[in-house]
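Posting this for the archive.
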Amino acid sequence: MALGQTECQSIAVSTPFPAAKLGDWHAVAQGVHVLVAEPAGVNLALVVGSDRAVVVDAGSSPAQGRALRAAVGSVTDRPLAAVVATHWHHDHAFGLAGFAGVETIAHESVRPRLASAAAAEEADRLGFAATELALPTRELALAAALDLGGGRRVEVVHLGRGHTDGDLVLVVPDADLVLAGDLVESAGPPSYGADSWAHEWPATLDGLIGLMTATTRAVPGHGSPVDREFVFEQRGRVAAVSGEISRLAGLGVSAEQAESRGTWALPFDAVRPGLDTALAQVRSGPRRPTLPLA
């Protein structure tokens, strides 16, 4: 059974968000557990050391975050050292409010994202007030390490922009495991949005691949754990999408024409939400230098 289903970046609902639709914990390595939170099918993780534990991603609402916090107690009595949000999207960060009194960590781009009109609109769609959202208490630019005791540490690193501008990856060296957020997907294709960086995503995945060996497994934001070969293959598809967008932009093809005019290495429906942004990124990029006329 897959650990997660496909991501839904925007869920229109007419009733309040279900508070506690959490699956059972599954061990993916010694002391590393993952459960799936619905309706987004998102993987939420718990890394346990001898002294402390870390939660990775917090669920889709303050109520779901509180339910997740309670669920941690069914696995360990170790205190939480931190909760890390791999990026700002609702299914990963809107549950941070459920962890009052615990340090919450995210990339430095996440606070303004969670305080934005877009986040407020998303909260409204999910059935709660934007004022219930909590901002991360600690901002991260590049990297940090969390000592959980017993020789276990978790390394948190921003390898670059891709799915969003604030993607974080967590490495658990002693478990030979990485938690990749939505930089990698196995329940469906990678998900592009208006906040994605399609042309930087391949290089960010290069950094992730560089952290992996032939035996390392990666837990994606949605879906079952994958190996280095899977990530490498997905990186190739993401790079092909970037190249095709650049080609079409050079031909002056519009987003509305792109499906029929392009050859797509990923399902077009996954790319289309981020296509306008990706085309604009090409057209606003550095101009090719020209020789002076005189």
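Confidence is low (pLDDT under 50) at residues 1-16, 287-294. The chain has nine helices and 13 strands.
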